[in-house]
Design brief:
Blueprint: H1 3-17, H2 26-57, H3 67-90, H4 93-97, H5 99-118, H6 123-151, H7 157-183, H8 202-226, H9 233-238, H10 242-260, H11 280-288, H12 291-315, H13 318-324, H14 329-353, H15 361-380, H16 384-411, H17 418-429, H18 431-447, H19 454-478, H20 487-490
Helix pairs in contact: 1-10, 2-6, 2-7, 2-8, 3-6, 3-17, 3-18, 5-6, 5-8, 6-7, 6-16, 6-17, 7-8, 7-14, 7-16, 12-16, 12-17, 12-18, 12-19, 13-14, 14-16, 15-16, 15-19, 16-17, 18-19
């Protein structure tokens, strides 16, 4: 590659970096968001519905049986193993063939997994279906966050990651509330949903199947919409496709000029790496042959590993945990469903303020709310209003650090290995989610013989929060700074 070509490529990136607002159509935010809506629908749809699944095809005798959290553990673990496979095998392929193509492939895989889930008739097939879905979800989350990081303005990577994450919260809400509607028996509000359909008839045994069918439909919609996405200019430049990248940047400049009238001065030109031949092995070498990238990988891997132990224990298992602690399933599902309000508040918070603080500072704020929310539920006893407040605070807390850390992880590796680096940290980190879910289920089962008390509930929620505390300590003590800096300065 000639020096002139490298200089031209650097100028194009500098032109993109000077755009202080979102330079693409906001329709593309919505398109990416629809995909995120489905992936988080898939993560949360099991939270309430799994009790009905266990009763109908796993032959569990009671909705409050401690066997349900035990059965849930391997389901979550296999889903996360699929997630890891997708992250580590499929996500890096986007460094080779492009972000756009892989975003369509991952949505297709996720939808097929959800469709398989709808027709599963035993535990083994249910596990296989969740594994396939996890493969698609794991790759999709890594590539979407990589894409956003590469096209968002320098001072708004957390902001626009949060805007896409807003759709995640809508997907989570849809998954939990549909579970409440379709898979639980009716109960007077606020102890349940009066119009719930899961008490009799078709939905009493098939409500959970309908939920996975809806998931497959959402995936199809997301797949069709993604055909219109443009490719990432940074990726095109890394492959030497300079003219294609320039055309997209020109469109971004033109759109920005309509709003701003004048663009800021061109920043310093940083000649980018342009790869003649790309491979997964080369991307791995980029990360593990550089001390800074190795250190970032270890830090972020540990942050995600321990953080996911808390997230998945609650995101996939809160209803089952509460049911095993003595809450009637409709009430347990309602507490989880109301908690989603806290989840929806997360992207609103981080969209408005996410780029004002360093990424790692958010982990402290997040874990404080997690502890307060968990203790709030534990100490509320039979006061359903306090349980609802505790759940809202809990969901706000254990999710608050996530969109910021998505941006942080994508910023921490260079374009030629960004999807690979994100996949390694986030993907391997998901092992913690499966381990956490199984550990919490075992902990509850071992203590239930002494009877359910407020003290037991407090111990359970403190154990769940402890994992996030460890994640936070790692982030704060040795985490690196990336906020409001150009990508090619952070990760050349």
């Amino acid at each position: 590659m000639t020096e002139k070509t490298e200089l031209k490529a650097g100028e194009i990136i500098a032109r993109m970096d000077r755009i202080p607002i979102w330079g693409l159509s906001y329709i593309f935010i919505g398109i990416l968001g629809i995909g995120f809506l489905f992936t988080f629908y898939d993560i949360f749809d099991i939270n309430v519905s799994f009790i009905q699944t266990a009763l109908t095809i796993f032959h569990v005798s009671s909705p409050s049986s401690p066997q349900i959290p035990i059965l849930l553990g391997p389901v979550v673990l296999l889903n996360l193993i699929g997630y890891i496979i997708g992250s580590l095998i499929l996500s890096p392929v986007s460094d080779l063939i492009g972000r756009r193509r892989m975003l369509m492939i991952t949505m297709l895989i996720t939808g097929l997994g959800s469709l398989y889930n709808a027709f599963a008739n035993d535990y083994i097939n249910f596990l296989i279906a969740r594994t396939i879905t996890g493969i698609g979800v794991g790759a999709d989350l890594a590539i979407v966050n990589t894409y956003i990081g590469e096209v968002a303005p320098t001072n708004g990577r957390a902001k626009y990651t949060s805007l896409v994450f807003l759709f995640s919260t809508l997907g989570a809400a849809l998954g939990i509330w549909l579970g409440l509607l379709l898979t639980t028996p009716p109960a007077p509000f606020p102890l349940g949903l009066p119009v719930a359909l899961g008490g009799s008839g078709f939905f009493a045994v098939n409500g959970w199947r309908v939920m996975y069918g809806i998931g497959a439909l959402l995936a199809l919609i997301g797949l069709l919409l993604r055909f219109s996405l443009p490719e990432s200019p940074r990726w095109l430049i890394s492959k030497g496709r300079i003219s294609e990248a320039e055309q997209i940047v020109k469109l971004m400049e033109s759109r920005a000029m309509k709003k701003l009238k004048e663009l800021p001065p061109l920043p310093k030109v940083i000649p980018p790496y342009i790869i003649e031949k790309h491979s997964y092995i080369n991307a791995i070498k980029v990360i593990f042959s550089n001390y800074s990238y190795i250190k970032r990988f270890i830090i972020l891997l540990l942050v995600w590993f321990f953080g996911y132990m808390t997230i998945y224990s609650l995101a996939a298992g809160l209803t089952s945990i509460l049911a095993s602690l003595g809450y009637p399933p409709p009430e347990a599902g309602m507490i989880a469903a109301i908690g989603v309000i806290g989840f929806i508040l997360v992207p609103i918070t981080t969209f408005l303020t996410g780029d004002r603080l360093e990424r790692k500072i958010w982990t402290i704020i997040s874990v404080i709310f997690t502890i307060l929310g968990g203790l709030g539920i534990a100490l509320a006893g039979t006061n359903i209003g306090l349980s609802f407040i505790g759940s809202i605070v809990l969901f706000y807390g254990f999710n608050l650090w996530v969109p910021i850390s998505y941006a942080w992880t994508a910023e921490s590796f260079p374009t030629r290995a960004r999807a690979t680096g994100f996949a390694l940290c986030d993907g391997v980190g998901h092992i913690g989610g499966g381990i956490g879910t199984i550990a919490v289920a075992s902990f509850i089962s071992s203590l239930l013989s002494a009877g359910v008390t407020k003290g037991l509930a407090a111990e359970v929620f403190l154990l769940i929060a402890l994992f996030q505390v460890i994640s936070t300590i790692i982030a704060i003590s040795i985490g690196h700074k990336t906020a409001n800096r150009r990508l090619d300065e952070i990760s050349p």
